[in-house]
Records
---
Amino acid sequence: MIDFRTHPGKYKHWRLGIDGRVATLTMDVQEDGGIDPGYELKLNSYDLGVDIELYDAVQRLRLEHPEVGAVILTSAKDRVFCAGANIRMLGLSSHGAKVNFCKFTNETRNGIEDATEHSDQKYICVINGTAAGGGYELALAADYIMLVDDGSSSVSLPELPLLAVLPGTGGLTRVVDKRLVRRDRADFFCTLVEGIKGKRAVDWNLVDEVVPRSSLEKVARERASEFAAQSKRPTGVKGIELTPLRRDIGEDGITYDNVTASLDRTMRAATITVNAPKEAPPGDPGAIHAQGAAFWPLAVARELDDLILHLRFNEPDLGTWILSTSGAPDMVAAADESLLANQDDWLVREITLYLKRTFKRIDVSSRSLVALIQPGSCFTGTLLELALAADRSYMLDGTFEGGNLPPAVVRPTGMNFGPLPMCNGLTRLHSRFLADPSHVETVKAESGNDLDAKAADALGLVTFTPDDIDWEDEVRIVIEERASFSPDALTGMEASLRFAGPETLETKIFGRLTAWQNWIFQRPNATGEEGALKLYGTGNQAKFDTKRV
Amino acid sequence: MSIDYNEKIPNNVDIAGDRKLRRALENWQPAYLKWWENLGPVESANYDVYLRTAISVDEGGWAHYGLLKMPEYRWGIFLAPPEPDRKIGFGIHKGEPVWTDLPGEYRAELRRLIVTQGDTEPASVEQQRRLGKICPSLYDLRNLYQVNVEEGRHLWAMVYLLHAYFGRDGREEADEMLLRHAGDPDKPRILQAFNEKTDDWLSFFMFTYFQDRDGKYQLAALAESGFDPLARSCRFMLTEEAHHMFVGETGIARIVQRTCEVMKEHDTDAVRPFGVIDLPTIQRFINFHYSICLDLFGQEKSTNAANYYSMGLKGRYQESKIDDDHVLSDSVYLVPEIQGDRVVGTEISALTAINERLRHDYAKDSDRGIQRFNKIIREHGVDFEFKLPNFAFNRGVGTFLGVEATPEGKLIGAEEWDRRRDEWLPPKADFDFVASLMQPVTEPGKMAGWIAPPKRGIHGQPLDFEYVRFH
């Protein structure tokens, strides 16, 4: 089982050092420390295990280290920065494992950019040796790239010429869409195994600066100090501690403090339930800081995050995630109020951003998402996003016969109108009402109001509103039907429908990853018996089917 | 501008008739001469040196002797004559005609091979540039300079390939060869052994014995290449490399000879007071140079080496004399693996073990000279024997990176290594002692006291011939 929970004391592959306002994340991959057997992580190449640690470090830098305004990303290896994802590992992995791995690594790199953009924590990549493939893609996620000018260290994206696949962590998109490298130059660069170094790398904007080896460390520290000095992150305050997540995994269920999942292997479905806080979360920053990792919105973000990753990697057969909530809507509303009222507090802002990233993770999960809104639920504000993220939602109209709970309601709050955008840059509500964006204002006017099934339906917030007579069949049929469809086709359809509206760097990266890279990963030219990825490392040469598709 | 290129740059590649090459070399040659002036042998520009110059590839032309100033040395470009109908001898293209033009699909790999090889050539000139000031004799000084100009010519050979076949990229790489420098903290040479110091003549002879022998094996493997211009270049370079190893082997042999004479004369092992280098110190220098040269062959298991082989770009040593299928898709080769505190052999695909095989060939060849040194010791009735250290000793690349081992190959802990390192590798005191012996001897026919005279002079000249004239 793959476990995403870790902490710096357990890292095998990274070192996290903090010096005043500057943090240094040093990659020093342990060759025999692969998460699976069968490959050696030479030349700072990485696998999922390496990236799990990177993700953990990036998260801690944001929540545990408010003082850090700049992060230096570098390598401890001599003349090697990072050789990218380990090829032998990719060759041994199933298609599903590769796709999941790429998605997670992409999310981490997007998270790095999110830190730069929204948390004023800037990443400076100090490339002290060869940066190939995923190594350069990691650098591309940083805000500023420095390359050692030693006459041999280069940056490269050699995936196409070497392996007959594409860079899997947004490299192509970031080269033309973030670094704005001219397309003809990008074309040349992306077919060049040995990459580009020195002055030309700067001239083409593949890196921001080249620095002689002997002054690299010094210049990196100077740049980092400059960036840190410009950062608006607070100084003289303490971060919170991301204490170890409590989690129980049983045969049919997973339990956290605030989130549970029950697994139905026959129906190949997982029911994810988020519980409202029992008591209203504190409203003032001091008390929020004092609660730290126990503060409900943060705890939910962490638990959901871990659960999604766990289900993605360890439960690939569970193709449908049923999203549900439980508890008092007022408690969730109080939590939302606590977040919205304290947006100028660094921690509250970080927690909100973390919630945003977690919901984005749900959006890009290759699972059918069905929200069930029943009596006793609390699809309020932040948790209403679960229903809005779902491919379909069912809301019980009225109550169950014999039930003693009042009818289900949904309640919009300020959290639904800005703080939690999708990766297309729009709120889920905006994405939902592209035909009439002004309708979002109509919904906003209902902020704070409990909307019953009829009202929610009228506002277009839910898909269907069966009554208690129809409920059981309707719900059963959607889940059974979903289980009968081709999982591949469902993944493609869902991803196509979820992200209407404008393209962003993120939508392009995920869209192209799913469409192009995953297609190429499946093709014989890459992974057939004589495909380039399959044969890499054996010394045997690939044979290509030369027909263009 | 009318320049007689064939006069200025002796060649058999028709520089005069090739516009592209002329343009490239017109730019590169002044940079090269500048480099020679700045980083070549110190203060040597005005010396007349009795040098061998290759002016053609035929029998009478490749060894043309005469006194000349080094900056006026005619760094020529020679390819061994083409073999008619030569076929690729190994890999997936086995049996196909060799490439006389650059195969586009292997451009990157060939460029890397040529750049890596080319980078070592000027590196050694840089490493050895101060040795002229402390030469043990004019004979040795001339040999040093001969080695230097030929390393320069080998750089020319590789630069020619880059200019002739790799377009703008090739020209840039050729320029970079002159911008990286041995031991430069900002732009070091590509391979670590070529960034080490060579500040005394014992180190120089060790270098020409061990590092140049690595060169021989690399060149021999490239001489098998399906890219014919590379193969022909390297074949011609091998004729010169043989002389460098001759300098190394006879140099060490003469030191050993002198040491043994003094040991017998004074009936003692403690010969340092008599101004010669004791045998254990020589052994420590052997340990150092041999172990860092083993690193030059790369990882035991190497995808790059496998690719180069399959692509037909770099073969094994004397490929055509090996009795197998020359494709290697089904054969295996034994490489070392560390299990606990033991080193065991493990079989991997012979394709990915190409480096290890070449390292083995090199090791065998290195040992031959060591046995000749031992013969000299025995002839003097001295009870001492040189040994090459085990593959596990003092390694910075591959399986043995990060583990410590004795010269016999026993794995040991860091504590024992720290305690005993100076028994096995030259400590500063060894370098200081050797450096103390390095007093220049420049009178024709005279030798420094720590080295025996050679058996004969150069090209039939007497030993007291004035091989270098200082003016």
---
Amino acid sequence: MKKVKEELPFGQTISVKGANLWYGDFHALKNIDIEIPERAVTAFIGPSGCGKSTFLKCFNRMNDLVAGCKITGKFMIGDVDIYGKTDVNELRKNVGMVFQKPNPFPMSVYENIAYGPRTFGIRKREQLDRIVEESLRGAAMWDELKDRLGKSALGLSGGQQQRLCIARALAVKPKIILMDEPTSALDPISTGKIEELCDELKTSTTIVIVTHNMQQATRISDKTGFFLLGELVEYGDTEDIFSDPKDERTERYITGRFG
Amino acid sequence: MTNTKVKEKIGRSAFTAAAILCIIAVVAIFAFLIVKSVPAFGKIGILQFMFGDNWSPDRLDSYESPLSGYYGIFTMIVGTVAATVGALLIGGVIGYFTAVFLVFFCPEKLKRVLASVINLLAGIPSVVYGFFGVVFLLPLLALFAPNNGTGLLATSIILGVMILPTVVSLSRTSLEAVPRAYYEGAVALGATHTQAVFKTVVPAARSGITASLVLGIGRALGETMAVVMVAGNSPAYPHSLFNSFRVLTANIVMEMGYAGEVQEGALVATGVVLLFFIFLVNVVFGAVSNRAVKTSAKPKKERKTSLAGVRIREFFGNIAYKLKAPYIGRAAAIVAGCFTGLALLFVVGFIFVKGVPHLIGNGYLVFGKFEFGGSRITIFPAIVTTLMTVALSLLIAVPIGVMTAIFLNEYARKGNVFVRIVRGAIDVLSGVPSIVYGLFGMITFVKLFGGSSSILSGSLTVSIMLLPTIVRSTEESLKSVADSLREGSLALGAGKMRTIFKVVLPSALSGILSAILLSMGRVVSESAPFLYTMGSVISATPHSYTDSGATLAVALYRLAGEGWHINEAYATAVVLIVLVLALNLLAEWVAARLNKKLTGDKK
Amino acid sequence: MKKVFLRGVLALTLTFGFSACMGREKNISVIAREKGSGTREAFDKVITDGNGNFLEMKDENGKKAYKTTLEAIEKYTTGDVKTSVGNDKNAIGYVSLGALDDTVKVVTVNGVAPNKERVLDGSYAIQRPFVIMTNATVTLTPRAADFLNYLQSAEMQSHAESAEVGCIYLSDPEKRAREGDAPVEVAQWANLDSLPDGEKIKISGSSSMEKLAKAAMKGYAAAYGVDGSKIFSEDYQGSSVGLKDAENDTSGNVIALSSTAQTSTKIKCFNVCLDAVAVVVNQANTLVSDLTIGQLYDIYSGKIKKFSELA
């Protein structure tokens, strides 16, 4: 019987110094320093292929899955060096992720949400019931789904599936949630609902969101980082970035000269 | 969480171990083939062995003294080649046209029926085909043959029907994969349906159709039981359509039981030659299809075309046009489709009509207890033997096969040398004819367990045969599970083992279960691997795995051969067909059901 | 127009070919047993053309030569031969005397019919002993030894001479012994108090001896009141397979059957009875009722291809 592990001292801030990443010979991320604040929404913007998603995946070590990927630099979450002697599963429990395309497991809604908690030892039915309800409420889906918990998650619409994935990520009570273009495949109404969610979640969770949509960044994020060709060109409060960018490249991107 | 870490380590080691076991199986078979055949090749002389046409073995020949027997297999090489060519001419041509019929000229309602019928044909055991050949085809041919019907023609017909399903299903897949745009383009230019089909779509599917023919060749080359029953088996050249001749596989199975030292080596060497042929066919096919792809990929200027070549092509093109070739093609397709459908109905119908009357009301045949020294036949022991064999062989092959597939797909780095070795090993295993497995099993497992046949030896032998299918199918199923699911699970903090067992495997389940059910069907219908490893006599119901026994297919072979109990033979054939078909249908149903469950709204 | 023409040509060819085949007298279907068969060995070693050529022999270089025609069809068991001959008007085959029934017609050889008297006095030439073999060196299990004793005893006489089995029991110690061996007396046997120990006795060998073996096994089992399938496991893959099993026996539980004399020194053996190899043809065959050994040689070596050629 697995014991429920005690909370590890993962904080809610992310601090990166001198991050470099190579895919084989390709230098994908160049010397990035960044401080991501706790309980706020931070957006990464920039044109395609500039490293935003790659950088995001460093925070929960999903890049470990890619063959030939080499990372240097210091990544601290709270006081913990996540590339040090940290248990990677524990890390991922605390740093949740929502992917671009919704990826619910081919199980029932209930099972999807219960998957995370079960992984970490929670077996009792009452406990799981409670967590499922909490998570679905947290994703504003409880009323919609409370009568179809046993049905397959694959029968939901795209927007519902994505919110289910958010609920699923919430079920393990992460300190930080990473979102990799979570609404790019969704219709405007679902997008709106998810943006509302981010607003609510940030009171308890740190959110880092990669987005192609600059308007989305202005709508929901507190801080924004602009990435170009593997470099973090500019980083600051969202208002400042969009009204008064310091770097010429930032300005050209924001005004739509390239993209 | 050290608990998880430990689990991960154990899991990884287990999967790697399974992959290593597969390699060991291949190495064992190859070692066996080499160790037993090289001395024979040496003693007899490779050229003498391969091109000598006198096969008169002396059981007493040993490696220490000069040989008194002759060991030349050339007549059998010719026999195998002739039978395979015959099978291709019949099965390949009819299969090709049937596939065309099925895809382009078949009315919708008939299509599903015909497709199912063809799948069923694939499931009929070889022994049943042989039996059908003996009781129906031979007497029919005897009407206008100078002998009793035995010979090349009978063999080609039976083999041709046996490779039909393979050729049809693969050709069909290729034809259906041709982009609709080709067809539409031709029709838009004014071509009729028939012209568009034969002039644009069919040529586009050429490589797939060729692949299906190659697979058909492989099947025909390795076929043993059906051929043994209708070919006559005299070590002579097949100089006419109707004389007794022997193929390489028959040579092995007929002399295996009592072969002396050198003779045994010569039989293994026969297996090696057979394997070499199969290998050759695959290599040639690879080269040909590569060239075809390369040629079509070259820019038009670079392709060499001689003027003579162009003229010849024009000439034949003209004739084809005048003869309205596409329409002859259509007629051929319709005829082929009818033939195939009727062939199955006929084979199965004939046996059912003859066998069911002896099944009904003869409860003793199926459920009776074996009477020692009694005169009535009961196949109940055979049923039990079959079930025991299926259980043990699956118990061995499924875990090893599934774990190897997991290793290959989930753990190994692509392109890793070890991975390539394991994949190569699996491919080799799938090309080895079943009779060679039988030989291997007889010389290793049987000897290992005290020298007498046992269900254990037979099960071990056949479980190696099942490995390639299970590994391949599982791998395909695992591949079809989207990576995003794996990422989703890992991102939630689950370890790899949990991801595999809770997310990946359940999604791949339908494919795996289908593979298992098809493997069950394979075990039930095989006989060559069991003849000398498990025993061939129906005796008392076996009590343990060390007992010998005969499976249903082997029992049918014996009953058919003896001739004393022909009615019981028919009844046994009915039971066998029903069992195999039930397994095949079950496989399809399970696959469909699970797929629905995964994608639909079911609980 | 062209299509009709082509079709017509095709139809004509088929009809012509078909009718051309129908009327001809067919070749003899020469049915032989497989090479591991004791029956075949016995037959091949006797059938000769009179000039020193036998169907199975060693040629002038000491090499093995099988003279049976390459057109022959090899069958696996006695029953198989009978079925083939019984279903084919042009067939000829050979089977054990004990297997004869009215599905096939017996042919006399050199004017002699295969019956008990003619076999015993040697005038029916195609005869062979039924041989019981065990490993020469290994010690038999108590159970196997007891059964061997049974097989050597006079209990076998009733089994051998029953209508079912129909072979000729040998009681003369000299005749029971293999050539060159010491004479083998008929043993005394009575069943012990209980079935002796040992694993299952493996009975392996000639299919011609199947009936005799089954009768013996049944009798032995009945004497102990035990179900025969608990005592024996049987396989009839041919005399050569039986010989091989006996030679390779390491556990002392193999009792093998051969329907032809064996010279191997790795086995101990004795002849339990005599059997004849009867030549059979189809019931409807009116052309053949007696054949000389020379004619049999010509037929089996392929020199004579049709029954009408027998002058």
